[in-house]
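SAMPLE LOG
Freezer: B-3
Tube label: C17
Construct: single chain, 79 aa
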Amino acid sequence: MKVAFLGRGKLGINVLRGLLDINHIEVPIVITCGATPEVEYSEDAFKKVADQNNITFIKTNHINQQKYVDLLNDLDIDL
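STRUCTURE (predicted):
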């Protein structure tokens, strides 16, 4: 199953790491937004995990732009 990860913060990094530990789940893309003061983990933490696992990484505060919709459609994401 292909799962696109979209998230941020401590909960997000824990979910991402958990997804990567499940053998039947493929995470082809990690998408996060810019850090804010109240969020414990910045986008750098997500980029590091993505880089370590050869996963495409995107930081955006505008996920609804057509280019991201097209990218997710092209990746044939299940969830």
